[in-house]
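Hey, I was hoping to borrow your eyes for a little while. I've been staring at a protein lately and its backbone has me curious. You're getting the sequence in one-letter code plus the fold written as tokens. Would you mind checking whether the tokens look sensible for this chain? Here's the protein in full, and shout if anything looks odd to you:
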Amino acid sequence: MIFIAVKFTVKPEWSERWIEHVTPFTEATRAEPGNLWFDWSRSVEDPHVYILLEAFADGDAGGEHVRSEHFAQAMRDLPQALVRTPQIISEEIDATDWNLMGEMTVE
């Protein structure tokens, strides 16, 4: 799978409406056949930082994503709300879903 983490630092005036702003992009991406997940989280330390965790079945699915119209639209729409260029980690890993944590078991 292609596993991606993206860190977005949002302008203060956009922080409370960021999720609403990215909803069309989120919904369109989640509907892609090769998308495994596309999940947003907000930092507990900085309310202006959002983290996007996303995964695609393989490189082909990731490529289709970045060639989609909704991706292109997001690349045009999102910068107005950002303080800086997002930071990203994108890696191909040997997995198909989340694994259970080996150091802890909840029964």
